Amino acid sequence: MFSLTPLVRNLLILNVAFFIIDAYIFPLIPVFALRSLLSPAFLPFQFVTYMFLHGGFGHLFSNMFGLIIFGPMLERIWGPKRFLIFYFVTGIGAGLLFSGIDYYETSRLQEAVSVYLQYPTPQGFLDFMSQHAKGYYQSNLDFINNFDENPTEQRYIQDSINFVNSYYQREVNIPMVGASGAIFGILMAFGLLFPNTELFLLFFPFPIKAKYFVAFYGMYELYQGIQNSQTDNVAHFAHVGGMLFAFILLKIWSADRNKFF
Questions:
Q1: Are the C-beta atoms of residues 90 and 25 closer than 8 Å to each other?
Q2: How many CB atoms lie within 10 A of CB 45?
């Protein structure tokens, strides 16, 4: 049995409660998920509320499992007040880093859309697809070829414009949800405060020290974020942001790094 501390228990209850409300009573994601800064649906309070929403049971389970495993030990060390501050700082920080990178990428997409709408040509459409919508290239190959063979035909021009506009609207309005930014912050803190603690993981055939696991996981998330695969719907930079803000906050708190466990 896991020995839950009071704040970890309350966070667990809140996350489960919001999941049930969103899934079965009233949809919360349309308003309370974190939206792109360029989306008309963006509201500042979403930097807080997105942390308590999840995209499915598996998403909720994985985050709450991490909270249950690593959270209680940190709460016992810091106390509930400091742990709560840490949870919100890392969660909000994760949202800020994710939003900053998303703003840069979406701004580039917005500029590309604007350029194409001014000059809707087959080559321009091909360039847009190859640079911004690679995941849709194969499924639109016939259209691309037909447009290339009939560059002045109005229906192909209009269809290409419709695709570019709809693609932008979809990208700018993708909601981001989940407590994983805060959970990755907790994981980072655990690795820094208990670097030599050996972890026994289901997907690892042998025990691994926390410092190595955290370092590997952080590098993996950074790599996946840089790869930016269009088929990957995981907010990797939110995970990196949670770890980064955890590191900064622990430095500010001047954690006693001479005591390793």
A1: no
A2: 10
Taking the domains of the chain in order of start, what are their residue ranges?
1-254
Report the alpha-carbon distance of residue 245 to residue 250 in Å, rounded.
Answer: 8
Tokens standing for residue 190? 């655990």
Q: What is the pLDDT along the chain (261 residues), one digit of tens a residue?
A: 458 999 999 999 999 999 999 999 999 999 999 999 999 999 999 999 999 999 999 999 999 999 999 999 999 999 999 999 999 999 999 999 999 999 999 999 999 999 999 999 999 999 999 888 888 888 888 999 999 999 999 999 999 999 999 999 999 999 999 999 999 999 999 999 998 888 877 666 778 888 888 888 888 888 888 877 666 667 888 999 999 999 999 999 865 555 444
Cα 31 to Cα 221: distance, rounded to the nearest angstrom: 27
Question: Whole-prediction pTM value?
Answer: 0.88
208 secondary structure, DSSP code: E
For residues 58 and 141, give the distance between their C-alpha atoms in angstroms, rounded to a whole number.
35
CATH architecture label of 1-254: Up-down Bundle (1.20)
Query: What's the gap between Cα 170 and its chain centre?
Result: 17
d(CA 69, CA 55): 21
Q: Can you say how many angstroms the Cα of residue 31 is from the centroid of all Cα atoms in its chain?
A: 17
Q: Which residues of 100-120 are buried (b: 16+ CB within 10 A; e: fewer)?
A: ebbeeebeebeebbeebeeeb
